[in-house]
Design brief:
alpha/beta, six-stranded mixed β-sheet, two-stranded antiparallel ribbon, 35% helix, 21% strand, globular, disordered C terminus
Length: 311
């Protein structure tokens, strides 16, 4: 792409909340919805569904919908089709740990978290669909019940924008937030998890449990400096969650290579855990156009790409 379609998301720093909300809604409704041509399948599953008739399996079908009794009886793979209900219930788990308060490119990771949530919220807000959220930031876990309507959607996004930055040394308990959605069981719907998925990977089990009942989308947010270090000489690196300061000599090629190798391995492990859990994976980066990344993700999902992963 020669020119950005949407550019970076609105900055949460130095702007009134109302201005941020207005820009996000305008961007999602006009630009993103326009690029998707009103067809959001691939990003959101559409109305809730219940089991319907079986049909022969085709490459790219969701293996979680395999109809094993029919497959065993006919010796031909079959999948169970679905019948649409009238409403979709969406839950968004929002991770606002201190590691999201970071960005070295066009925006902070936190800005992308809000943008990703706005995309899901505004694109699902129609026909009586409901949306709720669970916010975790290392200090509090905030649960906002699922309701319908534009005013509720605005209130939901506003609450995320206004959530205070947590103190260093605290990380949101993503696993506990996911468990809040598992018990008690809810009607089948869409669960979206927005995080950088750093820290202990104890979220995989709860995420797998949710994927057994719901459509699950993981939005992974990252910054290019989390993948490689620039050659800028002596650099002071701060861990936003522990507050620890470390000085590193980035002029050393071996250090930069070791860092990049370790970062690549870390991301590979996160991606593998998301695949094992049965979640689709959308990656948003602070140095890329978030609208283009979402459109490419939807196109890949529609083509039946494995897990819908976009890298």
């Amino acid at each position: 792409m020669s020119a950005p379609l949407g550019g970076p998301p609105p900055s949460l720093s130095g702007q009134p909340v109302d201005a941020v909300l207005a820009k996000l809604e305008l961007t999602v409704r006009r630009r993103l919805d326009g690029l998707l041509q009103g067809n959001h399948i691939g990003l959101v599953p559409g109305p809730g569904s219940e089991a319907g008739e079986s049909r022969v399996y085709h490459p790219g079908d969701d293996v979680r919908r395999m109809d094993w009794p029919v497959t065993a009886r006919t010796t031909v793979p079959h999948v169970r089709q679905t019948i649409a209900d009238r409403e979709l219930e969406t839950w968004v788990v929002v991770d606002l740990s201190p590691s999201l308060d970071f960005g070295t490119a066009n925006c902070e990771k936190r800005d992308l978290v809000v943008a990703g949530m706005a995309a899901v919220a505004y694109l699902t807000q129609h026909g009586g669909n409901r949306i709720g959220a669970i916010i975790t930031n290392g200090q509090d876990v905030i649960r906002l019940p699922a309701q319908s309507g534009r005013m509720h959607t605005q209130k939901l996004i506003r609450r995320v924008v206004e959530t205070p930055r947590s103190a260093q040394g605290r990380r949101g308990d993503l696993a506990a937030a996911l468990e809040m959605l598992r018990r008690p069981p809810r009607r089948r719907g869409l669960v979206v998890v927005i995080s950088d998925f750093l820290g202990e990977p104890n979220w995989e089990g709860p995420l797998r449990g949710l994927a057994g009942r719901h459509e699950v989308l993981a939005i992974e947010v990252l910054d290019p400096r989390e993948l490689e270090l620039p050659n800028v000489g002596m650099l002071t690196v701060v861990d936003p969650e522990s507050g620890q300061h470390v000085e590193v000599q980035t002029a050393k090629k071996s250090l930069r290579q070791n860092y990049a190798t370790a970062a690549l391995q870390q991301r590979a492990e996160i991606n593998a855990a998301l695949r094992r859990a049965g979640a689709g994976a959308l990656r948003l980066r602070t140095d890329r156009d978030w609208l283009i990344d979402i459109v490419r993700f939807v196109a890949a999902r529609r083509r039946g790409a494995s897990g819908g992963a976009l890298r």
